[in-house]
Design a protein that fits this description.
The chain is of the alpha+beta class and about 325 residues long. The protein contains eleven helices and nine strands. The protein starts with a helix and ends in a 7-residue tail after the last helix.
């Protein structure tokens, strides 16, 4: 799967229409990936399209079962398009390709599969699957890097007409307090579980608020755009170092999203040079991750972050399983 992710996100720049909102890329062995532009549509739109195709392929066992096969033969065959270009365009293409390859070769991507448990166990323990992974991701980053990380998680606002997304800033005071007590060798299991519940409940509350249009990031972005379009001075908040340190202006250290419970996976490059992309989908008995980092940054490693995530999730489940807890 890591190879597919590499090809979908970082494949050859000349064999797909990367200026289009959706490119479906197929390989000789029957596998497929897509490259999507997030601007005109949400990522879940692409997920639903891919999941529908996957379900239909499984249903027909990979064999065309159309009623009128003659109609399929009437589809025009593909043919090569020939473009007339001059030296200036040739130089521009070469420069764009060089710039793209430089970036592509600097990204580490892994797609590890965590098989210790999945949705079935979360259901048994009455834990919200996405929230569990999110708080463990915060703990894992804190444990690996010794500090919290400004975090973006996608919340959908599609309950509203023309709704898109909102940002859940899942690095909260509650989750940091929990991470600290987890690393304190003198803390009691009861303390760890209590603060774990606080962190879980805070994330669930924030997700509900953001899905109901009560987030802050889209509102602030809208104000910034209105100011720019009307020639106003950009408000001071948008150039304040604290705003960028909190993740503003595209500076979230962790760029994360829960892709869902389907067979479709996805991911992105890190937002900033010292950051990570971390997407995940949750199956009945496994959790599949997409983790990316910049190779040029010596302080980050996709491999090390996943190892920390796997350790932390296992540690938390062991803590809950070995101690009597009420549902969260």
């Amino acid at each position: 799967m890591s190879q597919l992710s590499q090809q979908g996100l970082l494949g050859k720049p000349g064999n797909a229409w990367y200026d289009k909102s959706y490119s479906s890329i197929w390989f000789e062995n029957g596998t497929t990936v897509s490259n999507c532009d997030h601007a005109p549509m949400d990522a879940m739109t692409s997920v639903n399209v891919s999941f529908y195709a996957d379900c239909r392929l499984i249903e027909c066992e990979g064999v065309w079962k159309g009623e009128n096969e003659e109609e399929t033969n009437e589809v025009p065959s593909y043919h090569e398009l020939h473009f007339t270009i001059d030296k200036q365009i040739e130089d521009g293409i070469a420069a764009a390709e060089s710039s793209y390859l430089k970036l592509a070769r600097n990204i580490e991507i892994i797609n590890p599969e965590f098989h210790t448990f999945g949705k079935d166990l979360f259901k048994e323990l009455k834990l919200h699957p996405d929230t569990f992974v999110q708080v463990c991701l915060q703990y894992a980053y804190y444990k690996l890097h010794g500090k919290p990380a400004a975090t973006y998680e996608t919340a959908t606002t599609r309950k509203f007409y023309n709704g898109r997304t909102e940002t859940v800033r899942s690095c909260t005071n509650e989750v940091v307090a929990w991470a600290k007590v987890m690393l304190d060798k003198d803390s009691l299991p009861s303390q760890k579980i209590h603060l774990f519940k606080n962190a879980m409940n805070k994330h669930l509350s924030m997700m509900r608020e953001c899905m109901s249009g009560q987030g802050i990031d889209r509102h602030l972005f809208g104000l910034k755009i209105v100011a720019a379009e009307n020639g106003f001075d950009i408000p001071d908040i948008f150039i304040d170092p604290a705003y960028e340190k909190s993740g503003g202006n595209g500076n979230f250290t962790l760029s994360t999203s829960f892709v869902g419970f389907t067979s479709v996976h996805g991911g992105v490059a890190p937002m900033c040079s010292n950051g990570y992309g971390c997407f995940y989908r949750i199956g009945a008995k496994r959790i599949v991750f997409f983790i990316s980092s910049w190779i040029s940054d010596e302080g980050t490693s996709a491999v090390k972050l996943y190892a920390s995530i796997a350790d932390c999730m296992t540690e938390v489940i062991d803590l809950l399983s070995n101690n009597t807890v009420s549902s969260i």
